[in-house]
Design brief:
This protein is α+β, with helices and mostly antiparallel strands and 329 residues long. It contains eight helices and 19 strands. It folds into three domains: 80 residues, Rossmann fold (3-Layer(aba) Sandwich), CATH 3.40.50; 116 residues, ATP-grasp fold, B domain (D-amino Acid Aminotransferase, Chain A, domain 1), CATH 3.30.470; 81 residues, no CATH class. Helices cover 26% and strands 30% of the residues. The strands form four sheets. An eight-stranded mixed sheet has the order 5-12-6-7-8-9-11-10, covered by helices on one side. A five-stranded antiparallel sheet has the order 17-16-15-18-19. It has a four-stranded parallel sheet with strand order 2-1-3-4.
């Protein structure tokens, strides 16, 4: 049996994806069952026959790790996306360090605990985006720049005077934001000229087993403040579908998936007319987060763009057993 497991508390955000995965599996002639972690813990017979498991968001019991509770409840199950890989995609600094190490093109990036390094980086690039180590959807990101040698930032709802500290706690006191190390920054990839700042095109590749199933682009109709340069759906951007993109962009997306090592996941990229493509980040479904599927609600959505169909079809494929070894005479 194939199952997708998730936490009951996450049902309002996950139910629709679980239903669509199961419906897609049925349409492909297979079977997949949605199962909450709480139901599996209450009746362990429900999980006894699961041989393949697709993980969506859940909170593990305080006494064990996510991998530990899954091993306990689903002793026969192959976890499609390993917990180590889920944790890697969740940790944006670890992801960037791996991509840099393996030569994948990323925007100029700074990871430091020294406030002076941040000032030099912003001075060099004009604008930079200070990012959270953990998280998704652009939450917690701040666009930084210098005004009269003072570091300022825009986080969407507020403009801040930034105070960077190596130790202590993050806190907001009026318009002053105290931000604690480590500092993870990337330069703003944009065309900057006399007419203003025009951020690059932000693309998302949906990769299934080494193939790009579909592309989306995130965009805004207008940019009214620096934080609008953080082009994310959770912060007011929109989706549209792309039917094709450059061969170089495809190559970088597939190379990223290979380096990260996921079977199923997304790669976010950015480029301008003369610069890029660069990888901004990666995500995969897992206990931390679910790949955003809000593009299903735009008028242009068609079955061709059904990400859950592609995932379900991949999950239904049984691995081919290697041929038996011949014994030497």
């Amino acid at each position: 049996m194939i199952a997708c497991v998730y936490g009951r508390a996450f049902a309002p955000f996950v139910d629709s994806a679980a239903r669509d995965l199961c419906a897609a599996a049925a349409s492909a002639g297979g079977e997949m069952h949605p199962l909450t972690l709480e139901a599996a813990m209450a009746d362990r017979r429900l999980a006894a026959d699961v041989h393949r498991l697709y993980v969506l968001p859940f909170d593990p019991p305080a006494t064990t790790s996510p991998a530990g509770i899954v091993r306990e409840l689903f002793p026969k199950a192959e976890v499609v996306i390993s917990f180590a890989l889920q944790d890697l995609c969740w940790d944006k600094i670890a992801t960037q360090e791996l991509l840099l190490e393996r030569g994948v093109p990323v925007p100029d990036t700074l990871i430091t605990s020294e406030p002076a390094d941040v000032y030099r980086f912003v001075q060099e690039h004009g604008f930079a985006i200070l990012k959270e180590r953990y998280g998704c959807g652009g939450q917690g990101h701040v666009v930084l720049w210098l005004e009269d040698k003072e570091l300022v930032g825009d986080g969407g709802s507020h403009r801040y005077k930034m105070e960077l500290v190596a130790h202590g706690r993050r806190r907001l006191d009026g318009d002053r934001l105290t931000y604690r190390a480590p500092f993870y920054l990337q330069r703003l990839v944009a065309d900057i000229g006399p007419r203003g700042v025009f951020p690059g095109q932000v693309l998302r590749a949906y990769v299934i087993d080494g193939q790009i199933a579909l592309w989306t682009e995130r965009y805004r109709d207008r940019y009214s403040r620096p934080s609008d340069w953080i082009i994310n759906i959770g912060l007011g951007a929109k989706y549209r579908f792309l039917h094709d993109t450059s061969e170089e962009t495809k190559k970088v997306a597939l190379r990223t998936a290979e380096v990260i090592g996921f079977r199923i996941g997304v790669v976010d990229l950015i480029h301008t007319g003369s610069d890029g493509p660069y990888v901004l980040g990666v995500d995969t479904d897992g206990y931390h987060i679910i790949i955003d599927r809000q593009f299903k609600h735009i008028p242009e959505y068609r079955e061709f763009f059904n990400l859950d169909r592609y995932i379900a079809e991949a999950l239904l494929i049984e691995p081919t057993a290697p041929p038996p070894r011949r014994r030497s005479a």
